[in-house]
């Protein structure tokens, strides 16, 4: 048995509404013991409340305008690449602890590939390739030998009809089990001061299976079993649970932002082309162990783009096939990305403003001097942005409800050296119940693409020797987790952190740490860069 001083358990999409429903069915007794025998509170997420941006915010304590990751993809002008750990330009908890002589084991935390070199071990998770480079070198093979196998992603793609739902759930529980077993193996070997293990399938089960409660229970039951083993075998002095966001039903509408912007004269469209910046074309290659940074269409997909120029869009063809009862045949034989290249797309250089990707929850202005072919003069930026904020704020659903709960200038949510990576206007759906789309598909409104999706409030819970449960506030913020963990060690946190210490521990105070240097990045080799893009479609985060 090893003894971890401070253990952080990440439960993607964990939140009190989900936990409390699971309590009723007695599915998560170990998680419940941390929440109720210690203390818990809602944990307010950031904007946008999505995995690849929110977990870096949690583990650095700074907002995306500082660390630089605002979504699944980063942009070079109008082109894009899937984000990696090299896009996170701020020190992680484990790197700061390393500076103070504390060791760490980090398993399955999103956006940690390629890994940093620290005293301890790192096994990257989501958004890295299937066979991620780990630290120390050779660690992945060692883990596979020790526990009998380890994967980052499921062994099937989303929508694969060759596997039954039961077989898919077996794979989900296998993945959850692998996280726990790998973490326990590494803590036994390294005896770290700090441990951080993240469970991702607690989120994706909602996306893939539309909130099917029996499947949710199955995944959480295995996650809780692993939490119980972590508590007994790692014997932490202090344990925290944290999530990146919550999860709940989207029972309103899907609002196609770029269709609205086109009618208002801001978006210009083109037929065919590479398609909207997206993480979808990358997912399959990630699962295959590649680490593609971007995506280029195949010959078949380029043909679809060419056909679209003559009016034969994938959307029109699909609609025609559906009318004659051949929709299933079209799905079976059409490559995934034909729809991407064979539909109308936003013509970014010619547009005044547009939504780049739905998960950014915002609109970008095509600013001259910032974008490669920007058309909005800097002296017109405020005028264009203010007019857009006014127009978007007034949009209503067919039922007469506001589409957006808030439409705000980006400065309200993003600040720091990378604030220019963010959208210029933040568009937060009303009660996080309206599903936003960046696609050009004709109508403004449709039923939500996914009936369950992310909510603002996740959860934080704490229990242990240095935790005062009476100090838990009624609500904490995602940015508070990093300074709280540093204070739990009695180590000053960075004065650049945006959060406050949750008063379950004494606030040690901050100190100045060196600015994050690009030289801190771990370079990717050519083979790493060959394949990250197609893998991510089956996780359903982007259209």
Provide a quick synopsis of the model.
The chain is 31% helix and 17% strand. It has 543 residues and is an alpha/beta fold. It has an eight-stranded mixed beta sheet, sandwiched between helices. Strands 13-14-16-15 form a four-stranded antiparallel beta sheet, with helices on one face. The protein has a three-stranded mixed beta sheet with strand order 17-10-18.
Q: What features would you describe in this structure?
A:
- Residues 515-531 have a biased composition (Acidic residues).
- One of its GO terms (molecular function) is hydrolase activity.
- This is Alkaline phosphatase family protein.
- Residues 507-543 are annotated as: Disordered.
- The protein is an alpha/beta fold.
- Helix content is 31%, strand content 17%.
- The protein has 17 helices and 23 strands.
- It has helices at residues 16-24, 29-37, 51-60, 64-67, 93-99, 139-147, 165-190, 201-209, 213-234, 257-263, 283-287, 299-309, 314-323, 327-333, 338-341, 381-393, 481-488, and strands at residues 6-11, 39-44, 73-76, 79-82, 104-107, 120-123, 194-199, 238-242, 246-249, 254-256, 269-271, 344-346, 353-354, 362-365, 404-409, 425-429, 435-437, 445-446, 452-455, 457-464, 476-477, 493-494, 510-511.
- An eight-stranded mixed β-sheet has the order 6-5-7-1-8-20-2-21, sandwiched between helices. The protein has a four-stranded antiparallel β-sheet with strand order 13-14-16-15, covered by helices on one side. It has a three-stranded mixed β-sheet with strand order 17-10-18.
- Helix 7 (165-190) runs parallel beside helix 9 (213-234) and helix 8 packs antiparallel against helix 9.
């Amino acid at each position: 048995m090893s003894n971890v001083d401070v253990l952080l358990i990440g439960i993607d999409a964990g939140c009190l509404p989900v936990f409390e429903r699971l309590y009723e069915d007695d599915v998560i007794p170990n998680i419940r013991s941390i929440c109720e025998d210690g203390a818990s509170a809602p944990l307010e997420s950031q904007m946008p409340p999505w995995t690849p941006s929110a977990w870096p915010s949690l583990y650095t304590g700074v907002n995306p305008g500082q660390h630089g990751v605002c979504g699944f993809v980063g942009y070079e002008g109008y082109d894009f690449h899937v984000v990696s750990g090299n896009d996170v330009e701020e020190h992680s908890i484990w790197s700061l602890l390393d500076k103070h002589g504390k060791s760490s084991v980090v398993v399955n935390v999103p956006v940690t590939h390629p890994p940093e070199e620290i005293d301890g071990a790192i096994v990257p998770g989501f958004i890295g390739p299937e066979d991620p480079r780990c630290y120390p070198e050779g660690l992945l093979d060692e883990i596979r030998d020790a526990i009998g196998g380890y994967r980052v992603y499921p062994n099937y793609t989303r929508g694969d009809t060759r596997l039954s739902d039961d077989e898919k759930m077996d794979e989900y529980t296998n993945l959850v089990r692998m996280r726990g077993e790998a973490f326990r193996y590494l803590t036994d070997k390294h005896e770290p001061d700090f441990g951080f293990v993240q469970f991702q399938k607690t989120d994706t089960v909602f996306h893939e299976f539309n909130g099917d409660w029996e499947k949710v229970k199955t995944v959480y039951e295995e996650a809780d079993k692993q939490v119980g083993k972590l508590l007994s075998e790692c014997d932490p002095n202090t344990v925290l649970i944290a999530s990146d966001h919550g999860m709940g039903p989207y029972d309103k509408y899907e609002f196609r932002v770029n269709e609205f912007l086109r009618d208002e004269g801001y978006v210009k469209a083109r037929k065919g082309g590479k398609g909207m910046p997206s993480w979808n074309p990358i997912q399959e290659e990630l699962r295959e162990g590649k680490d593609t940074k971007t995506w280029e269409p195949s010959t078949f997909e380029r043909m679809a783009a060419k056909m679209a120029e003559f009016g034969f869009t994938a959307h029109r063809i699909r609609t025609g096939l559906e009318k004659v009862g051949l929709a299933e045949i079209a799905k079976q034989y059409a490559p995934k990305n034909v729809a991407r290249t064979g539909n109308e797309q936003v013509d970014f250089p010619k547009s005044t403003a547009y939504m780049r990707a739905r998960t950014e929850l915002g609109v970008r202005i095509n600013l001259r001097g910032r974008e490669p072919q920007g058309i909005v003069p800097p002296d017109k930026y405020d005028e264009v942005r203010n007019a857009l904020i006014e127009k978007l704020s007034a949009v209503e659903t067919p039922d007469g409800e506001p589409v957006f709960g808030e439409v705000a200038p980006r400065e309200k949510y993003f600040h720091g050296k990378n604030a220019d990576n963010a959208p210029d206007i933040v568009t937060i759906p009303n009660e996080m119940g309206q599903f936003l789309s960046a696609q050009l598909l004709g109508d403004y409104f449709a039923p939500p693409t996914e009936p369950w999706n992310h909510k603002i409030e996740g959860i934080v819970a704490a229990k242990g020797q240095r935790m005062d449960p009476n100090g838990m506030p009624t609500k904490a913020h995602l940015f508070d987790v990093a300074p709280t963990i540093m204070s739990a060690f009695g180590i000053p946190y960075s004065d650049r952190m945006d959060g406050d210490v949750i008063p379950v521990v004494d606030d040690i105070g901050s100190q100045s740490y060196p600015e994050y240097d690009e030289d801190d990045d771990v370079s990717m080799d050519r083979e790493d860069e060959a394949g990250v893009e197609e893998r991510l479609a089956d996780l359903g985060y982007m259209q």
